[in-house]
Amino acid sequence: MPETDTTIFATLADSARQLGYATPEQVVQRLGRIILSNRSYAQSRKRRGLHTAYDDVVAEDTVVLALAMQMVQCSAQKEMRSEYENRRNGS
């Protein structure tokens, strides 16, 4: 039976947890490192005058990763505020 996207994503997420990525902060830090690495790769390729369709894919992936990074940060902040409000209100 072929794996579904959901199964693949869950398996990959479990692998990330096993590698020690347990908090949103850790995930955001890792996303930041990937973004910086991608940008360095793109700049190196540009300096050498190289460009392929893969470079375009990396560029698009990089901006989407930056968006995901912001979304994770925003979600984590909302969750922290909600937990604080619940504790403050005795819930």
How would you describe this structure to a colleague?
With 91 residues, the chain is an all-alpha fold. It has one domain. 81% of the residues lie in helices and 0% in strands. The chain has 3 helices and no strands. The chain has helices at 5-18, 24-47, 53-88. Helix 2 (24-47) runs antiparallel to helix 3 (53-88). The model has no long low-confidence stretch (mean pLDDT 92).
Give me some keywords for this one.
3 helices, 91 residues, mainly alpha
> What is the string of helix and strand elements?
HHH
List the total number of helices: 3
* Beta fraction: under 5%
Overall geometry comes to: elongated
- Multimeric status of the protein: single chain
Cα separation of the termini: 45 Å
Backbone structural class: mainly alpha
Mean pLDDT, all residues: 92
In short:
The chain has 91 residues and is mainly α.
Draw up the topology in text.
Blueprint: H1 5-18, H2 24-47, H3 53-88
